[in-house]
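A protein record in our archive is deliberately plain, so that people and models can read it alike. The record that follows is passed on verbatim for readers who wish to inspect the format.
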Amino acid sequence: MENPGATQGDVAPLTVAWSDPCRQAGSISLVIMVVRDESTSGGAEGNGSGPRDSEWLTGPSLPDGVWQGQRLGLPQSGRGSIASLLRRAGGIAIDWAIALTVANLIVDADVFLMNIAIQSSFFVLYLLCVWLLGRTPGHWIMGIGVVDVASRRTLASTGPVGALRALLRTVLVCLVIPVVIMDPDGRGLHDKASGAVVVQTR
């Protein structure tokens, strides 16, 4: 039976008893710990207080009133703010289209070799552009760029360290999975590993 004195969010014991055929004189009590979910019982989320829980498919969320990039000192919108997922996806799609076109122009082989040529073209394109320019052609078209979190400068302006971080970032981007694992600020594992963030440039 539910404990009438329990309050919302408390852990209330629920006792269930049954007869043991081997012990007619007694019974065994099974205590089941019932944990109430505040989100389904009109808790803090219902009245707008407290951080929102992370949700499946929507990704991790930030507390109310906090925008992506605020913890990094970035503006809420406009130039220098966190680039939207749509812009980033568009940039990657454009870069892959360019790599596909280049591979088809220089390679005439079977599907296996063509796939290698496409991935190699993308790798070289992404590495050189992020290292030397701080953005790829897809980034430029979508109005975004890769900058260092600490200095707010492009990876291209940080000297030899920029080259190493651009290489690490490119490898992780080609692995795909690190790109889709994001923190609440919209930074993927490739961003965090390279100490960078993708921001709007216009």
The mean pLDDT is 76. The radius of gyration is 26 Å.
